[in-house]
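Z., the sequence and structure:
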Amino acid sequence: MTDNAIELEGVSKRYLLGEDHAAGGSLREAISSAVRRRGRSDRQREREEIWSLRDVDLTVATGESLGVVGRNGAGKSTLLKILTRITEPTRGVARTRGRVGALLEVGTGFHPELTGRENVYLNGAILGMSRQQIRQEYDAIVDFSGIERFLDTPVKRYSSGMYLRLAFAVAAHLQADIMVVDEVLAVGDADFQRKCLGKMAEVERTGRTVLFVSHNLDAILRLCPRSIWLEQGRLVAEGPTQDVLDSYLASGVRRTAVSRYTDTADPVALRSVTVLDAAGRASSLLARDQPFFLDVEFEVARPIPGLDLSLIVSNLRGLRVLDEAWSDSAPPDRGQPGRYRARVCIPPLLVTGEYTVGVWMGSAYESLLWQDDALQFRLEGSVQGRPERVLQLHPDWQVDVPERPAVLRG
């Protein structure tokens, strides 16, 4: 007997633009749709087809946590809807072994006219649980959700945050063998997100299977040892999560050493942003163990008292690793009209990888300019076996070595 909880063989899903996907369309609607398509060329009909998934082969072992990454429209949500039987594949076979609990986009899975309490029992019944089994988990669900006061209120009156709390609590505590979680954690606050991630890790430790779709790549890295990357409906990478994320992030990088701008200075405008290597040459490929420079040219149209400039360096997971402000060392009369050039030297602190540079200008009273992703560069070199850190500080260590006990000789 197989140990796989999920098996996909050549799964494809096609949608037709303008097609009514709701079940139970009338005969009149079907005839009208057929008449509209008659007389169109094959090329016109072909344009109407959208393949959300194409020839996806995948196995997920029982007890495994699998991350799913990809850009919007890559087919991630379609994959989960096929696994949860919300929709059927156009071609191929999708098998799941065990009960599947789904937490998809907010609005899926609950009946809006029923209360929170009634929806808990409804979801348990759908999973095949008895009323007694649901009752045993009910207190834990209520405690986790934190919305006990509203359980007798119809869920159509819930905020998106309240809905998410109850939906996640139900999905995590009811006895599903496979837990499918789409990008819904973005709705909750930071504390609830941490709580959800902790619960998902706990679910995995109990031997249940987790599929986790998210744009929060750090969360996927923490939770999922293995991941897949979907692009335009195709599975383009599969393997250890760190390797998959590196490939996924690098695919969207268009490195440039110099970015130039022609905006009117009103009241400030960028003219150029440049990254330079240790020798002062413009380059988007830098050595990790050497300092480098960020150079900004900008123009000020009118006096701006207390004008400040910040250069923000972020890694491709969106983590801000440096935020250096001109005001830390700039002359006090900064902000007079004219053309400026500012350069900052960055010591060799960052680890290897891809980085983006953002530029902010303003004062203590107003924000005047924000240029996100002004340029991109890469640091190359050894990570010395520790790719998860974001800074390499090279601190000085002092170690007191214990004295060896004296050896007595007889």
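The domain at 4-23+46-251 is CATH 3.40.50.300 (Rossmann fold). Residues 190-205 form the longest helix (16 residues).

Let me know what you think.
H.
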